[in-house]
Amino acid sequence: MIPFPKKLQRSPQLLLQAAEEKRGARHLVNIAGWLVVGSVAVMFAVKTILFSLVSMTREGNQTPDMQTLYLIYCISYLSLALLPILYALGSSYSPEKLLPFQKRKDTGLSRMDMLFLCAVSMALILLANVPVQLVAMLQQALGMSGKIPDMPLDRTTTTQILYFGYSVILAPLVEEVLFRGAVLGCLRKYGDWFAIIMSALMFGLYHGNVGQFVFASLIGVILGYLRVRTGSLLPGMLLHLLNNLLPTAEAILLQNYGGNFSEQFTNGYMVVFLIAGAVAFLLRLIVKGPHSFAKLAVPRDRTAATLSERLRGLFTSAGGVAVLIYGVAFSIFVMVQV
């Protein structure tokens, strides 16, 4: 397949090929969309069942204590990975293509390459908070709160351990299996960058509020790139974990030690990783030269259909529209409630 990004340059044969690719991409977006929506539905169903079981053991309308609440969150969130794992095992794709854990030596990357990618990617993930702040300011200017909903938290040790496990360990592992595993993996047939961007958009919509849509979409591109270039979900899981560690530790420290200590931790955390990313970039540039970055690139998609034509599947497939409706509906709900 040969890239012809401009429609005027495409011959009748390439136009036919582009039409076939658009249909194929739309079909895979439909599958990916229903994977996301189905996984969310399973999670909500499990959560509802668990809440019902807990309520049966309590008198009247007594609400569950915080520890029970987080146990329910943890168990129900694990179920988010059920459909992607079943799809990886039962689809025409091999499990290694949808849930890859490729060895570094098979990707042509050295240990220093991997360290460089992780350091720079983590710095970029932290910088993704900047446009989120701009979106929050815009929402406030329009009369909305611009706040992202917080998880409940108290000072009990058990609650904080469960909160940490849910936010820092469980969420990154499960979300990477779904979005960078099954969703991105099934979309790669029609281009790596198509799969990276589409899975990132679905990842953003999944979070169900405007601020997190912007942030999750941006980091979804970074994590998707890592998944494709390294051939493994592990680097993305690690950086996703480190990203979630910041707000989680900040919330726990705020609860236990107050705002000053929490703010100092946040500032120190960001400074360390931003400096590490900048130093890694400059060292590679100076020591190995600009040409050394070429081996880290994900090649441009070689398709007759343009990227925008393939991305339209989000709006023209039932699964894609279902994800859109879910993301937009929850975003509106959050803006009204917060």
General description of the model:
With 338 residues, the chain is mostly helical. The protein has one domain. The chain contains 14 helices and no strands. The radius of gyration is 21 Å and the shape is globular. The termini are far apart.
Short description:
The chain has 338 residues and is mostly helical.
Identify the overall geometry: globular
Query: In this structure, how is the largest beta sheet organized?
Result: none
Beta strand count: 0
Tally of structural domains = 1
Number of helices: 14
- Overall pLDDT level: 91
Radius of gyration: 21 Å
Structural class: mainly alpha
Q: How far is the N terminus from the C terminus?
A: 49 Å
Beta-strand residue fraction: under 5%
Extract low-pLDDT stretches. Answer: none
- Helix-strand pattern: HHHHHHHHHHHHHH
Helix content: over 70%
What are the key terms here?
mainly alpha, globular, 338 residues, 14 helices
Furnish the topology, listing elements before pairings:
Layout: H1 12-56, H2 66-78, H3 82-90, H4 95-98, H5 111-127, H6 129-141, H7 157-187, H8 192-206, H9 210-230, H10 234-257, H11 259-287, H12 307-311, H13 313-316, H14 318-337
Helix pairs in contact: 1-2, 1-3, 1-7, 1-8, 1-14, 2-7, 3-7, 5-9, 5-10, 5-11, 6-9, 7-8, 7-9, 7-10, 8-9, 8-14, 9-10, 10-11
